[in-house]
Specification:
Strand content: 5-15%
Mean pLDDT: 92
Shape: globular
Number of strands: 18
Radius of gyration: 25 Å
Low-confidence stretches: 1-17, 584-590
Helix content: 25-40%
């Protein structure tokens, strides 16, 4: 006969054996870097780390459990940084192993760095991916884009003409190519190289250009810049995007063969173009002076168009249903583009463009495709030898205001600078971009607290999260398997293309992931299914900050050095004589006029479809 007390004791015994759970980076830890895991259900108990032979090598008492609100879960942050000898280890509470194998090596992050950069090769448009470089993910060429037509929204008078818009990267899970999103993406990767040249000069990504004398990361970036250059119109303005009129189905690129168009021409896209091509002109001069000069001239021409046409904001045409990347405020793009152009020209007019606005408090925002004040700040703060002290100080203020706010958020059981408000569309890119802010704070201050917090961000993305999942395809014990990514869905390979960072938990998901929303734990609001674009799509602007974060950490520890602020001597170009033209866009029906509205002078714009839009005199859209 089983007594009630015996049953209770049995339940307690079972509970004791399964109580402790560990969440950790599932890929690996750099030998000399900080190492932490979040342990649930073991507060006050010894966590014993054993090597592959079962020998105890370190014992750490789990501290008091602390709540992490996004997970609605208490955990003890266990630090085992003392463990520095390369090898595979296991964590135990009592006789029970918790978590996953712990891998420690000097190059623990090199694999994910390479994979997250190789993702861009897999996203190449206008080329076949051969087995030599793509392995089982080889595929035929899709979208040659040698005969791209002009949509009427470009303002071109002859809509029967075509142009060569080849190369570039597919933007996300779809096959569109978007200048605005390419802007922040390409800049982030260029910065990764600029700040870690010694490491990336020799890093082999196994791409078709790997045997030339140019670093592979720059060869890959150039594939996209060459496409961006094709998007510049004769008058200097830049077309907003290159897509079909509607999204393709979940097929491989060569099966998505509808006519492609250049669509729209916008001020934000043009300033983004200025920022990218100006920085490229500096970086590529060492390897290809002719290409670098082409980039500089293009940047100067685009700057003139953008200053003459400050309020050309993209409006999605009625017959188009692809991504919009609409932005009704080009102040931040102008500041970033002007900063990059001034850095390579010393041109007073570029400095004037920059000084029209300042990095005031409400502009101290985390970077994203639609908000790029931080990109201007990164450039100014790390180039004090070029910019005025007031500019440098305001840039540093932006960076440290954000970085210090993240440090203040670290007091939780998962040890993460991530809050409830971060879990919206593309939350993993929000997290990765925080890592980029923290790396810059470390570069500027040499304070390891920022570098350590950035490590925690990476650990979250690779498994130190309440879902116990690595959000980078192909890496980790529990991997994402069903991203919203057309090539991965359209091929016959079970596993998705590796090295892709998915969007992550989204507490406002409006697709098939809606049923997985956890109002009390937004960090668990995720669905690994290709039907969920809101939580499981991939995008170039999400992969770029992940690559920056992982690559910077690996490079800093591998070389023992960080970027030396003020050490660069940028190439100098003269683009003052570049001609420009007033826009020829035909998007307005009745034109623009100044009116008095809401007690202020406003710009009223009447669009072709008869709708009206309103802007202040600085070009900011008014709702």
């Amino acid at each position: 006969m089983i007594t009630k007390n015996a049953t209770i004791l049995s339940v307690l015994a079972v509970s004791a054996t399964i109580a402790a759970t560990s969440y950790q980076n599932q890929v690996g830890f750099i030998s000399s870097a900080p190492k932490q895991i979040a342990v649930v259900g073991a507060a006050g108990e010894d966590v014993v780390f054993k090597d592959a032979e079962g020998n105890a090598v370190l014992t750490v008492k789990a501290p008091e459990a602390v709540m992490w609100a996004p997970a609605n879960e208490e955990a003890s942050l266990v630090d085992f940084s003392e463990l520095t000898t390369p090898g595979t280890y296991y964590a135990f509470v009592g006789d029970d192993s918790i978590g996953h194998p712990i891998n420690i090596s000097d190059n623990a992050l090199e694999g994910v760095t390479k994979a997250s950069l190789k993702f861009f090769y897999f996203q190449r448009s206008s080329t076949e991916l051969t087995e030599e470089y793509a392995g089982k993910y080889a595929r035929p060429m899709g979208h040659p884009d040698t005969a791209v037509m002009y949509h009427e929204s470009t303002g071109k008078l002859d809509l029967t003409g075509t142009f060569n818009g080849s190369k570039g990267w597919y933007d996300a899970g779809d096959y569109g190519k978007y200048v605005v999103n390419s802007g922040i993406t390409t800049y982030t990767l260029l910065q990764l190289y600029q700040q870690n040249k010694a490491y990336f000069d020799t890093l082999n990504l196994n791409i078709p250009e790997s045997n030339n004398d140019v670093p592979d990361i720059l060869d890959e970036i150039r594939w996209n810049i060459e496409w961006m250059l094709t998007m510049q119109d004769e008058d200097g303005g830049v077309f907003h995007k290159l897509t079909t009129k509607q999204f393709a189905g979940m097929v491989l690129p060569d099966k998505a063969n509808k006519q492609r168009y250049a669509i729209g021409k916008s001020t934000p896209a043009t300033w983004d173009f200025v920022g990218v091509t100006a920085l490229a002109a500096d970086i590529y001069k060492r390897f290809d002076p002719e290409f670098a000069e082409k980039c500089a001239v293009a940047a100067g021409k685009a700057r003139w168009w953008a200053t003459l046409n400050p309020h050309e904001f993209f409006s999605q045409p009625r017959d188009v249903g692809t991504g919009t990347y609409t932005d009704g405020n080009a102040v931040d793009e102008r500041m970033w583009g002007a900063a990059e152009l001034y850095r390579i020209t010393g041109q007073p007019s570029a400095l004037e463009d920059l000084h029209i606005f300042t990095l005031i408090q409400n502009r101290r925002k985390l970077q994203s495709w639609q908000t790029v004040y931080a990109l201007a700040a990164f450039t100014m703060a790390t180039n004090p030898q070029i910019f005025e002290q007031e500019d440098v100080d305001s840039a540093k203020m932006l960076i440290f205001t954000l970085a210090d706010s993240y440090i203040e958020d670290l007091n939780n059981g998962f040890g993460l600078a991530i809050g409830n408000g971060d879990f919206y569309w593309g939350s993993n890119s929000v997290v990765a971009n925080k890592g980029m802010i923290l790396i810059h704070a470390y570069i500027l201050s040499d304070d390891k607290k920022y570098l350590n917090a950035a490590q925690g961000i990476l650990d979250y993305l690779l498994g130190r999260n309440p879902l116990d999942i690595s959000y980078l395809t192909g890496w980790g014990v529990n991997q994402v398997m069903n991203p919203h990514h057309r090539p991965s869905e359209g091929d016959t390979v079970v596993a998705p293309v590796p090295g892709m960072l998915v969007g992550g938990p989204n507490s406002t998901a409006d697709d098939c992931a809606k049923k997985f929303i956890d109002a009390d734990a937004p960090a668990k609001s995720y669905y690994d299914n290709s039907c969920s674009y809101a939580t499981n799509e991939v995008a170039i602007n999400w992969n770029a900050p992940f690559a920056y974060l992982a690559g910077s950490l690996q490079a800093i520890y591998a070389t023992g050095k960080k970027y030396e602020v003020g050490s660069d001597t940028p190439a100098k170009y003269d683009v003052t004589a570049v001609p420009a033209a007033k826009t020829a866009l035909k998007t307005r029906a009745a034109g623009d006029r100044l009116i008095f509205k809401d007690n202020s002078v406003r710009l009223e714009r009447t669009l072709r479809d008869g709708t009206k839009a309103y802007f202040d005199l600085r070009g900011k859209a008014i709702r």
